[in-house]
Give the backbone structure.
Amino acid sequence: RRLHADGFGDLWYLEAKKAGGHEVAPLLVSPDTDEVGAKLSPDGRLIAYASNQTGRYEVYVREFPAGGGPWQISIRGGTQPRWRRDGREIFYVEGNTLMAARVETTPRFAVPARERLFQCQGCLEGRSHQYDVTGDGRRFVVPESVGESRTPVISVVQNWFQEFRQRRQPAG
């Protein structure tokens, strides 16, 4: 991912050279949009990512590295795509809800169903992934608050070394 001066980013990848080594190659370059959170499909033929090309972030899929598509996965906003291990489902965050989109890749790409899985207060829409999913798509790791939220207290101690010396001196 390379960033523009305005903070938006493009998607790039490393391509193996025949003579050895790698070179950076563009995948999706657009000066007025931000592409984030790219994840390759398990078979490596497709890439899921989020883009704000419509004015809000949505999840899309493209062929990799050819770039065919894109196909829109989310319909009411979405970020943080992740693939199920068999490539038949893409998970993403819509608002504070974890979503699942069933996908078909043959004979052509399609999204026959989307489903709300559960609310996830710690999975707010954003640029970075804030959850993870097992390969079978049955278990999720999500951030959740535990107990009351308290403002942390920070204590600053000045001249602590002097106090330390005084406490170490024997009384007497």
